[in-house]
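Journal club side-thread
Mid-discussion, someone asked how the predicted structure for our own chain would compare to the paper's figures. Pasting it here so we can look after the session.
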Amino acid sequence: MGSFLLYDQTGPIVTLTMNQPEARNPLTGNSAVEEFVAACRKISEDVSVRAVIVTGAGSAFSSGGNVKDMRRHYGPDSHDGTAIREEYRHGIQRLTLALYNLDVPTIAAVNGPAIGAGCDLTCMCDIRIASEKALFAESFVKVGIVPGDGGAWLLPRVVGFSKAAEMAFTGDPLTAPEALAAGLVSKVVAPEMLMEEARRIAGRIAANPGRALRLTKRLMRESHNARLETVLELSAAYQALAHKTPGHKEAVEAFIEKRKPEFTDD
């Protein structure tokens, strides 16, 4: 895909690998935002993609913001607060919106430390599995800033307000077992098994018809901020679309004929 993000597709599964291991895969001060946005656009337009895995090369998942790069915000040549605000809005926040709003199911395979925006990046994904070497820290307060990438919205929806507040107010990291206990991840595996497990889950997802997957994810996303009545109305509309897809027809016919369904890029 580019100098930061490796884009690999095997059948209906795309793997996005952050590939700046010498800097622990930071999300600022490089081309990460542009490459993630471009990758999400490519995935969205490719109806053959049914699952996405996000991981990091090297020992870290992502160190989040480039701390050394932050010095320019208070140096003699720094911009005013309004310019910095616009930088966030047109920078890292574009990554948040692109990945979180991607209709294709996403899996974060957390191979090592996920710090600050790196932790929030995992929360932008639908499913999180962790290596035993993973660490998670909502650590913005440790460097005197706030979650500028939407972490204050993302993290409480994953672990609940109390745990999110503890993480954000202390900045202290969670080990992989602690993240499992908090519901931040759904599984912890040995490091050498991480990508195999991620691909196994992705394969189970990708075994289902693509349009139904995308509609299901969109429905779940919309339910975060909607009343039950609104979600029911949207469910009826999406169901009408789903009933007319080739994937639905093939699934029903295969069930009746007692055979394995064969889904095309529906």
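Post-session note: The first strand starts at residue 5 and ends at 10.
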